[in-house]
Amino acid sequence: RQVALLISGGGSNMVKLAQSMAEPGHPARPCLVLSNNPAAGGLARAAEMGIPTAVVNHRDFPKDREGFEGELQAKLEASGADLICLAGFMRILTAGFTAQWAGRMLNIHPSLLPKYPGLNTHQRAIDAGDAWAGCTVHEVTADLDAGPALGQARVPIEQGDTADTLAARVLVQEHILYPRVLHRFASGNRTPLND
Ligand code: GRF
Predict the structure, then answer these.
(1) 123-158, pLDDT tens digit by residue?
(2) Start and end of every Formyl transferase N-terminal domain (predicted)?
(3) Is 100 helix (H, G, I), strand (E, B) or coil?
(4) Separation CA 73–CA 124 (nearest Å)
(5) Cβ 148 vs Cβ 109: under 8 Å
(6) Residue nearest to atom 8 of ligand 1 (CA)
(7) 179 CB near ligand 1 (under 6 Å)
(8) Would you call 116 helix, strand, or coil by DSSP?
């Protein structure tokens, strides 16, 4: 499979996915790292790894989500991508775009979905007094953070945790979970991972 990795920031998940795909026998290869943010640190990290990069700045398409996504699609088609991994990608995609990539687009969300879709997931889990937090890799559908889960990883919420300390603990698990799920998914196995 040819995988396009979409980022908006540092791209730590993108780096882990690309490193995983470099292992011998892996059924997928990274063909593009695409960001909506021209200043995303992940672009330089992708270039260092020899992965083609592109930017489609959403600020160039004010109030024109379709126009933005049309540019994304053009870059994706030019790259030959047949699978998308959203990895710290912070733009909401329209139903049209998600339908175009139905069954071929994954995302990692930093909560134990269906709890805490959307933003500020760690603070919300702490404020709720939850004992556990974690991350979910899921197929992307038109409903935000609601697609079929392909895998989850849990971490305990510790006394005195802040959103930052919890996010750091969850991120370690993201870096393990996402490559595992991508390998299975790219091999044609869509059954969820259950540890
Ligand atoms: C991570 O917390 C991830 O869960 C969320 O974006 C954050 C940054 O990811 N999707 P990355 O370091 O840019 O991969």
Answers:
(1) 999 999 999 999 999 999 988 888 879 999 999 999
(2) 2-182
(3) helix
(4) 34
(5) no
(6) 88
(7) no
(8) coil
| Both structure tokens of 171 | 């991120």
Under 8 Å between Cβ of 11 and 45:
yes
Nearest to 183 by CA among 8, 7, 24: 24
Question: pLDDT tens, 34-64?
Answer: 999 999 999 999 999 999 999 999 999 999 9
Scan for tokens 């990883």, then name that residue: 153
Q: What is the pTM for the complete model shown?
A: 0.96
Structure tokens given for 144: 């935000």
**Quick one: tokens of 47?**
């270039």
Residues written for the chain: 195
CA distance 149 to 106: 10
In this prediction the ipTM stands at 0.92
pLDDT above 70: percentage of residues in the chain: 99
Pairing assessment for the beta strands 105-109 and 132-139 based on DSSP bridges:
antiparallel
User: How many whole angstroms from 67 Cα to the centroid of ligand 1?
Assistant: 25
pLDDT confidence of residue 145: 86
- HSE-CB at 174 with a 13 A cutoff on CA atoms is 26
Q: In the numeric block, which tokens belong to residue 185?
A: 């998914």
